[in-house]
Every structure is written in structure tokens, then in C-alpha cells.
TrEMBL record:
Molecular functions per Gene Ontology: glycosyltransferase activity
Keyword Lipoprotein: no
Organism encoding this protein: Gossypium harknessii
Protein family: Belongs to the glycosyltransferase GT106 family.
UniProt superkingdom: Eukaryota
A Pfam family it matches: O-FucT
InterPro entries with a match to the protein in the record: AtOFT1-like, GDP-Fuc_O-FucTrfase
Keywords attached to this entry: Carbohydrate metabolism, Fucose metabolism, Glycosyltransferase, Transferase
Gene Ontology BP annotations: fucose metabolic process; pollen-pistil interaction
CDD domains linked to this entry: O-FucT_like (cd11296)
Protein's recorded name: O-fucosyltransferase family protein
Length: 342
């Protein structure tokens, strides 16, 4: 059973403590849904009659399938089969194995079900977002009905919301600027103004729409992210939404899991294509559409549209984003890319 950890590097060492997989996802549910494909085991299930065999793993992006196979062949010449537990040791690329096909990785995601505690916390946040959206839409429709006595329907039943993974925190800005220098790509970092402008050009909505800003508050050095939004878009972060108390009860990783779920459920999601967090949300949303028979969303209106604000799209808006499910490796998801299918 794997442990989960964060990848922060800006004065946040205390946040890097790993937590067990079953503190976030339902262990038995995972094994039930992924039966015949991949399974997890607990250390307590082992007889522990032998010591752990440490297998030194290669590191970096150059580690290939061929190197993996050769490495395993060399290891098998020893006494590795006598051990119940093989521990992989070494600095591995994030989301190892890189060489998993995207379709296989998406299948693993279908087996991930949040534990009830986290799921219920996400329910509270989503409910609060929709309640506020419904309240503002009701006010607008009441004003409109004063001028139009023939108003027949109400849009308040659904109160859709937009979730923006607004990567403007200190740790990201340090990372993305270095990444732009190394890669020679200038589409990685996005300023607050650029994000606000591009998100504002997605829809010309007459009804007020809540925009939930998913940011790591403790790493945010800018208190003005709620200012400058287009009329009709109502920006909320945790404190203004009144849900910061829900998040503060939990560790950094659990807070991220709640935010992930809130973003995943959004009617429209907007993120950064070089962020693993954003990429995984789009992967999951693409998988949902695929189950509905939709293989390409770029030219049509779909139920769960996603956008990358770091790439300029039509009408000065963000670029539409859909995961390439036929990709043979996870590189675009693991390390980010400006090639996002659409």
C-alpha cells in the first residue's frame, strides 16, 4: 500500500510528512473496483518471515521500460524471490512509472474513492458554493421578473460554478519561472491579471456565476485575487466562502484532496497545464466524458469542459483542454505540457 506526500519546497518542510493511502482513499473499494487489474496489500497481511529486499531504483526522466526490465533481470539472479517485500529505493520521477499508458492510469483513477470523511467535507464546500450561486441568481431573476411578467423558468435549481486552480502562490511562481528558463517555454507562468482576464472570456453569462478559487492560502502572498473580475463572475476563496474552518481541521494533503474533489465536480474547470494537480483533474473529467461516448470536446459544448488559462485560446480566453487518452506515456501529465489535445 503506497503512502502519499506533497512536493512542496518553499519553507514548508513540516507539510511534507507522508500519510497512508487508506487515510485518503477507500482501501477495500479500490481492490474491489480494480480487481483483475491492480491490487493493494497491507503489510499486516504478510507473514513477515523474511527481511525486506531493497531494490535500488534508477531516477529521472531517462529511466525507460528497457532499463526497468534489465534491472529486474539482474535482481532476479540473486535471492530476491525469497523475500515477501521488495522495497523500491531511490529518487523516482513523480507519478512513476512514466511509461504507463494514459488509458491504464485513468483506469486506476476510476478505482479511487475518497474516504467518507473527506467526501463529506467536499460535499459541504460544494453545497456552500451552489447555495451562494442560487442566492445571487434568485436576486437577479426577481429583478428581471419585475420587467418581464412572462418569466417561465428558473435557473436557480442547478446554480453552476466555475473552479479555477489559481496557481499564483509563492512556491509555484518560483518553480514555474525556473521551468520556463530551462525549457524555453513562456506559457507556464500566468499572472493574476492574465488568469482573471482569460477566465472572464470563457462565457458571456448574464446570470451571476460563482468562481471558486482553489489556492493554497498559507502560500499565497497576494490578498487581491478577489479583485478585478468580470461583471457576473463572483470570485470566492475559502475565507470569503466561509469554509476555511473546514480546511483548517486537516493536514495540507487532506486540504488538497478536498480542493481536488471540489474542482473535479465543477461545471467548468480552469487550470494550468503544467500543474500535475490540474492535469489529473482534467484526466478524470476526460475519462467521465469518454464513458459518455465523447472522445473529443474541443469543438462542441460538453458537460464537463476544462480549460488551460496559461495557453491563449479563442476570443482571448483560455485554451480548451482534454487529455490525450491514447498517449503511450504519462509525461504530459507528470511534467506538464502546452500540447493539450485541443
Amino acid at each position: 500500500m503506497p503512502s502519499l506526500s506533497a512536493s512542496l519546497f518553499y519553507k514548508e518542510i513540516d507539510r511534507l510528512q507522508p500519510i497512508s493511502f487508506d487515510k485518503v482513499f477507500q482501501f477495500d473499494k479500490f481492490n474491489s473496483l480494480c480487481k483483475g487489474f491492480v491490487q493493494l496489500g497491507r503489510y499486516s497481511d504478510l507473514k513477515n518471515q523474511t527481511g525486506i529486499y531493497d531494490l535500488q531504483k534508477g531516477s529521472g526522466r531517462k529511466w525507460t521500460v528497457e532499463r526497468d526490465m534489465e534491472h529486474l533481470k539482474q535482481s532476479s539472479r540473486g535471492h530476491v524471490d525469497e523475500h515477501e517485500v521488495i522495497r523500491i529505493v531511490g529518487k523516482n520521477p513523480f507519478l512513476w512509472h512514466d511509461h504507463w499508458p494514459v488509458e491504464d492510469y485513468a483506469r486506476v483513477f476510476e478505482c479511487l474513492v475518497l474516504v467518507d470523511e473527506i467526501s463529506k467535507e467536499a460535499d459541504k464546500v460544494v453545497s456552500k458554493i451552489r447555495q451562494i450561486g442560487k442566492k445571487h441568481r434568485s436576486k437577479t431573476e426577481m429583478i428581471q421578473s419585475d420587467f418581464d411578467a412572462n418569466t417561465e423558468s428558473s435557473s436557480t435549481a442547478t446554480a453552476p460554478y466555475i473552479a479555477v486552480h489559481m496557481r499564483v502562490e509563492i512556491d509555484w511562481m518560483i518553480h514555474c519561472k525556473k521551468l520556463e528558463q530551462r525549457s524555453g517555454v513562456n506559457q507556464i507562468c500566468s499572472s493574476k491579471q492574465e488568469i482573471i482576464e482569460r477566465v472572464g472570456n470563457i462565457v458571456s453569462s448574464e446570470s451571476p456565476t460563482v468562481v471558486y478559487l482553489a489556492v493554497a492560502d498559507s502560500l499565497l502572498n497576494d490578498s487581491s485575487i478577489l479583485s478585478g473580475w468580470k461583471k457576473g463572475l463572483l470570485p470566492f476563496e475559502k475565507k470569503k466562502l466561509g469554509v476555511d474552518g473546514i480546511y483548517k481541521k486537516h493536514s495540507y494533503l487532506i486540504q488538497s484532496a478536498i480542493d481536488y474533489e471540489v474542482c473535479s465536480r465543477a461545471d467548468i474547470f480552469v487550470g494550468n497545464s503544467f500543474s500535475t494537480f490540474s492535469s489529473l483533474i482534467v484526466l478524470e473529467r476526460t475519462q467521465k466524458m469518454k464513458r459518455m461516448g465523447i472522445t473529443r470536446s474541443c469543438d462542441i459544448d460538453v458537460r464537463w469542459p476544462s480549460y488551460a488559462y496559461n495557453i491563449l485560446g479563442e476570443s482571448n480566453g483560455p485554451q480548451k483542454w482534454m487529455t490525450n487518452m491514447s498517449d503511450s506515456t504519462l509525461q504530459a501529465i507528470s511534467y506538464g505540457s502546452n500540447a493539450i489535445t485541443c
